[in-house]
Structures are given as C-alpha cells and as structure tokens.
C-alpha cells in the first residue's frame, strides 16, 4: 500500500476528560516493523518527528465523526483523535482502516461502541472548522454546502450558529432571497431553501428569534417554498396571508398578545406543513423549535387568563340566547383551542386555569351547546368536555349532582352526554366512542377515592343509577324483545327472540353500551346487581346472542362472562331461575362445527365454571343441558362438568350413607340390649345412652307412651308377627310422632325370631327400629296392629322413605 499523506491535528483525552492538542503533522497508513502490522503514522510538519504511531488493530473500535474526525481508544483511559484539515484525507484514511478490519467504508463505527458523545462535545475549537463565505449570490452554493456539512457535528453546528449571529448574516441571506425571486434565479432559490432549512436544523433558539420576527418570518416561509424536489414551488405565503384568516371572537386590544398569536400560528405551520417529517437521524434537530412553540402557547394562555374582562365577555356571549349560531360556533372553537393550549401549562398553572373556567360557568355553557344541532359545535363542545373530565372528574360529578338537587331532572349534563352518544350520526360512531370513554371515567370508582369527600362514590353512583342508567340502557331495551321462553321451548331449536333493527350502526351502539355495562358489573357490585335483577337485564342482553353481527353476540357473552366470573350466588340463582344458559347454548349449537371466536368464548365460559367448580351452575347445566352437550367431544369441558357433577353427587351420597351407617350401628347396640336377661320381666328398662334428650323429658314421653298403649298390651302379647310371602317374618318401621319422640318400651323379656325356628311357640317377636335424631338414639317398639297406619303414613310422606330405608 502506498503512503497517503494528509495534514491533521493529533488529540489525546486527559484525565479531566478534556482534549489536549499534541501537534500538527501529516498522517499515513504504513507497515511498521516494530508493531508488526499496518499502523497510523503521524510525523510533525515542523521537524518530522513522530507524533503518533498506532497499530490498526482488527478489534479496535474506530469512529468517524463530522466528516473530518477519526476517534478511537488505545487503552481503557487513553483516547486518541485525528482532526483532518480536508474531508478527502479523512475519507482515504478511513477506507484504509475499514479495509484492514474488513468493514464497509460507509459505516461510521467499525465496532460496537457504548458511548462516545462526551468526547466530541469537548473537542477543542479549531479555526478551520467554520469559515462563512461572503453573503453574495455567487457564494450561495458554497454556503449551502457548508450549512449541510456541519449538521452531523454538534461542535461545528455550534460554531456555525455563532457565526450566523454576527453581522446580521440571516437578514442578508433573506435580502438575497428577494433578489433571486425578482431575478427568477431558480438555482439560487434552491440553494436558499437548503440554507434556511439547514439553519432551522441547527436547533438554536437565538436564531429562531431572528428568523421568526415579524419582518423576517414571511421571507423564511418564502425560502422554504422552493424545495428542489418539487416541480413547482408551493404557495405557502399566499395561504398564510389570504386563505388563513385570524378571527377575533372578542377584539384583542393587547398588541403583544396579538403578535404572539400570529407568530405561534405561523411557526406551527412551518413545523407541521412546510418542513418534511424528520428522519430517525433528524428527529432531535427540531426539538428547540417544538420548545419555541410550547413556550409561546404558555405565554398566550397566561396573558388571556389574566385578562378577566375578556373571558367574562366570551362566556356572556356564549350563553346568551341572542347570540347567532355562527358567532356561537366561533366562541366554542375559541374555547377548544384555548383548552388545547392549556395542556402546555405546568400542573399548578393548569389547575388554576380550569378552576377559572369553572368559576366562569363553563359546564352550564357546555350543557347548552352540546344540545345544539350544529355538528361542528357539538364536536368542539365534546372536546372541551373531555379536557374538563380529564382534569377533574370530581368537579363534573359535583356539578351534575347539584343540578339534580335543584330539581332540574329533565336536562342533566350526563344525560345530555348519553343522548349525544346514542344519537351520533357518524356511521363509525367516532363521537360516541369518545363520549363512552368520558362516561366510563365519570363512573369509575377508582377516581372517586378522594379523602376530601368520602361520600362521593355512594352519592354519585346512587344518583347515576336513579337518574341516568335508564337513559343509557334505553336503546338496549328498545332493540330487544321481552319475550320469555315458554315451558315448551326446546334447547337447540331455532326459536329466537328478534333483534330489531339489526343493522351495523345499531349493533355498534349496543356494543358500546354493553361495554359500559360490563365495566359497571366489574366495578359497581351493589348498584348494578340490583339493576340487573330488577330489570331482568341479562335476559334482554342475551337476546343479542341471536344478532347476525358476531361482535355484538360476543359483547353480550362477555357481559354474562363477567357476571359469572364474580362467582356471586345471587347472580347464580338469578341465572338458574331464568334458565339464562339456554341462549348461550343455542348460540353454540347454531354455530355448528365452526372453530371461531364465538365458539372459543362460549367454551371458555363453561371451562371457567368447571375449573372454579361453581357447584350450583354445574348442577344446573348438567341437569338441563347434558343431553345436547354430549355430542361436543372436541373439548373435554362438558365431560368434565358432568364428571364434577357426578363426583359431587357421590360425595353427598357417601355423607348420607355414613349417616345411615351410624344409625344402624346404634340399632345393633340396642338389639344387644334387648337380648340381655332382665329379672324384672314385666318392667321396661331404658339403657343409659349418650347424646340423649334430657332425662325428665324422656320420662314424660315414656309415660305418655305407656298410657297410650296400656289398653292393648294383653292383646298384643298373644299376637305373633305376620308371615311374609317368603316364609320370613315381616318387620315394619313406625313413623308416629311418639316414635320420633323416642320411647323405648317392652312388657316382657324378648328374644329375636329366627328363620330356623319360625314356629317356636316360646318365641315372642317384637318389631323394632332405631331412629337417630339430633338428640340421640331412641328405642322404638312397634306392633303389628299399627302396620296399616304405617303404610298409609309412608304413602303420605314419601320424602321420609330414603332417610329411613335400610
């Protein structure tokens, strides 16, 4: 490789992170034997001594900056920089470095770097970085190249900005613009476009003050009309001076305020309309321009807010019935812009701004204009209302509750908002969506937790459900019939309740309302529960499962899913009583085998019930719909529900059989007692039993039983039990009140009859049963004479049979 000598300055970074000048010389890339590789060699131009000898390492990160700088690190705290006098020399050395490292010369960094910005920001000033040519027509191309070349270098941008501030250079350029336009010098105008655009990208507030002054700004706009990429120049000045009209709803007497408004509008026009959208690499070039506009808006709002007479006059005309529609439209648009500008204020200043508007009566004024027929006025009023709700929902809630307290129920601000949402004529319901979001903010309990007014949540929600909810749900109730399925209705049939009318716009509106109601279910547990149950609202909502618009059916299903998701037994009983799963299952069956969102959403609902083990709903679904759901086998949800149901039934049966087993165990104990010898044959003996009734009560019941049966004793002793058809003895269970009171009685020593000796004359059989009550075990003696009575009682009380059967 041949040596390429270029004039450079060598810099090193010292411990204080400042760049030290090590001298000026000529650089070359050559092979150095001592370093055993290609190296950068700089020899001093004064005496030829070596200023730098650095091997080009394959792993060293070199960075090219400002077209004339190459920077790299030789060690952890040893950074080097070469500042070239000419761009061409920098490019040649950069190509050599990239060639050795195997990189594309178009890259600016050969290896990944963490951050090198601090190094370049602190580079020393060098006299050759910026040298402004004379401001003459034949130098415009040179000036344009200079301005364009410095944009990639923060240091050179700063130097150029300082140079432009001297000797009124910008105003001289604008004078050349007038000359070029008069001479129709297209090439010069194109250069001036590049120059002015580059100066804007220098991002310096001091330059903006000059360029956006009253005597310069229109010439700046004129320069920006001659974009070289356009066939014909744009007519921005004509638009700003003739088309765009400044409207004063109330005359502004302050000349400074008027000038600030004009300037802000024009600068905003330059940023939004004239200048192209900045690329990723240019996105920070106009940050100061954005700040310039921002602070102008702050100043405008402050000046208007301080003029109390001006705002008072605006409000007076806005609410005056004599104000014509055109004037009112301008007043509302003014307030819309005013509120938009207020977003630039600091929080404390913005609070003061909205409090000023509230004191002047912005909410009553909005109530009037939101009910007007003019769509533009309503749209602007909605935007103003959104600013107020965003600022302070509590302020709006307090206003509407005061309206209700004054007895003005016919026109409540929230009802006006709901009606505007319902009556939105836009096919896409853009305004309705915006209003629905505002309503959700107003009824959101999360922003009602201010400690200054702890009763706000209770009071406002009570007010809303009393005075506003019926307005919100009116379209829903009007578009769904109130037919309840009769007893003959069959699951899976095509008998449906109509949705009328089922057009797209109505479906969108109902979907918005359902979204708001679903929000209420999640956040208003008490109020919405009463409303749903009193109005049978869920049944009406589920009519929408029949809509031809799937998104509306999904909204209805989502509403039910939120209700089921609460796992509230009040809701569950309401669903069961109304058989409200039927329209959901019908929708699933009507959907057929299509695998779509509706199918997945319905299955997810039942899967939730299965996973959460909501027993009441599981039993209801299996009892009523298991037959029609058995055919759905591509998921295990319904089989799982049936399995859960059967497991629960088994658990209940086991509990009941355990209960009965305990009773039989005690019965066996009693029979053992009967078989024991007793010396007093004619006397009944009651064994001591734990968990029995109190002794006195037991004795009284026992005495009453003896008296009731005393007349029949002798006859019963002689009678034998009746023989059943199978050759065994038939035993019966008594259900009399006396038996359940628990008397144990026998008048003789007894033995159990055995099938082996059924005819034993010495055997005396006594039919007995043991009954377990909450008070304990009670022995019972029954007699064959009572058999018919017992059978009658069993027929009359079938519910008792399962509990007493063995």
Automatic annotation (TrEMBL):
Residues 670-683, 783-795 have a biased composition (Acidic residues). Keywords: Coiled coil. SUPFAM superfamilies: ARM repeat, PH domain-like. GO terms for molecular function: protein phosphatase activator activity. The keyword Ribonucleoprotein does not apply. Pfam families: EVH1_PP4R3, PP4R3. Transmembrane segments: none annotated. GO terms for cellular component: nucleoplasm; protein phosphatase 4 complex. Residues 5-101 form the PP4R3 EVH1-like domain. InterPro entries: ARM-type_fold (IPR016024), EVH1_PP4R3 (IPR055236), P4R3-like_central_dom (IPR006887), PH-like_dom_sf (IPR011993), PP4R3-like (IPR051137). Residues 142-647 form the Serine/threonine-protein phosphatase 4 regulatory subunit 3-like central domain. The keyword Transmembrane does not apply. Residues 642-669 form a coiled coil. One of its GO terms (biological process) is DNA damage response. Residues 670-701, 739-766, 780-806 are annotated as: Disordered. Belongs to the SMEK family. PANTHER family: ATP SYNTHASE GAMMA-RELATED, SERINE_THREONINE-PROTEIN PHOSPHATASE 4 REGULATORY SUBUNIT 3B. Regulatory subunit of serine/threonine-protein phosphatase 4. This is Serine/threonine-protein phosphatase 4 regulatory subunit 3. It comes from Erpetoichthys calabaricus.
